[in-house]
Amino acid sequence: MVSAAERVAAGVDPELPMLTLADLGVIRDVREDADTVVVTITPTYSGCPAMDEIRADLRRALTGYRSVEVRTVLAPAWTTDWISEAGRAKLAAAGISPPGPAPRRAPGPVPLNLGLPRTGVACPQCGNPESELISAFSATACRELRRCPSCREPFEHVKEI
After folding, report:
1. DSSP helix, strand, coil percent of the chain (3-state; round to 5)
2. Residues 31-70: tens digit of each pLDDT
3. Which terminus of the chain, N or C, has less C-beta within 10 A?
4. pLDDT for position 104
């Protein structure tokens, strides 16, 4: 029989369906006893529009338990560093540039940075180490649209958060 933790880990992200929730690193805890399951997750950001769908998917995956509770915790805040190595490889295989290391910040409010966009984002198609920013936002707020100057292919990049 598949455990509740295995069912939860196998759930997919609705915005990046090549990633499981385990790959994405949003699962904080799964507690199971007899016929009750409590799942604790951390959204990729507090206003993530996919959270309702993720909660519903988790409840469907845990059908058969008398009680299923999905809790959301915001601290510590999720970071792209929580994406697994397998998840990063799946992003690249899907043509999406995975994030680099997240910026290190002191605890407290996150400063607004209006500086120039990050350079050195490699093309997932041809491997060229540089790309140009087309748009700071793509299909979701956590991705940007870039283009490779070598192969000229556009691609998405998951921003470092």
Report:
1. 20, 25, 55
2. 998 889 999 999 998 888 899 999 999 999 999 999 999 9
3. N
4. 80
Location of structure tokens 């790309």:
131
Confidence of residue 151 (pLDDT cuts 50, 70, 90): very high
Helix (H, G, I), strand (E, B) or coil at 68: strand
- DSSP state at residue 82: G
Q: Decide if 144 contacts 157 (C-beta within 8 A).
A: yes
H/E element holding 86?
A: helix 85-93
DSSP, collapsed to helix, strand or coil, labels residue 12 as strand
* 16 contacts: CB under 8 Å, gap ≥ 6: 24, 91, 96, 158
What are residue 83's DSSP bridge partners? none
DSSP state of 115: S
Tokens of 110: 């996150």
Q: What is the Cβ-side half-sphere exposure of residue 21, based on CA atoms within 13 angstroms?
A: 27
